[in-house]
């Protein structure tokens, strides 16, 4: 049997705490579905600042093309990472107990000029994964094809639901859900 080619991660998925893993796993799931290799880590901007900077500075040389950073509360992680790399960073605001993630959303979306962070909705890790795949798909035809198939699948789901709605009417449709 021949040697298998080692696949290097193209997307880094990071989060400030393992309590964010349930949400951030949605990015991993969609990247798995689209067959985009990734790595996933807990790295805290506040508790492990030197490791966060080292991760950010080494990401490009390790083959990463995009970083998805999830954070709640003050949500410093995406901005700190973006300040230390030339790779695109996608911030995922994580819903908190105190203000339902609005604090994280505002923190991530209000980056200072020169340090952009793309921001998805609160707990929007799946969309972050899709956005990362779209970026990868700009230069990877296989990923682009998988994305096209994924979007066609979404289209088919909507068409089936609409057909059912038209056949049953809104009242009966709601009762079948």
Describe the structure.
The protein contains seven helices and five strands, in the order E-H-E-H-E-H-E-H-E-H-H-H. It is globular. It has two domains: 11-139, Rossmann fold, CATH 3.40.50; 144-177. The chain is of the alpha/beta class and 177 residues long.
Please outline what is shown here.
Helix content is 48%, strand content 14%. It is an alpha/beta fold.
Question: Strand portion, in percent?
Answer: 5-15%
* Count of DSSP H/I helices: 7
Largest sheet geometry: 5 strands, parallel
> Low-confidence runs (pLDDT<50, min 5 residues)?
none
Pattern of helices and strands = EHEHEHEHEHHH
Strand order of the largest sheet: 2-1-3-4-5
Count of structural domains? 2
Mean pLDDT, to the nearest integer, reads 95
- Specify the CATH class of the largest domain: Alpha Beta
CATH topology of the largest domain: Rossmann fold
Q: Which terms would index this structure?
A:
about 180 residues; alpha/beta; Rossmann fold; 2 domains; five-stranded parallel sheet; 7 helices
Topology record:
Layout: E1 11-15, H1 21-33, E2 38-42, H2 49-58, E3 66-72, H3 77-83, E4 89-94, H4 102-109, E5 118-119, H5 125-137, H6 141-168, H7 170-175
Parallel strand pairs: 1-2, 1-3, 3-4, 4-5
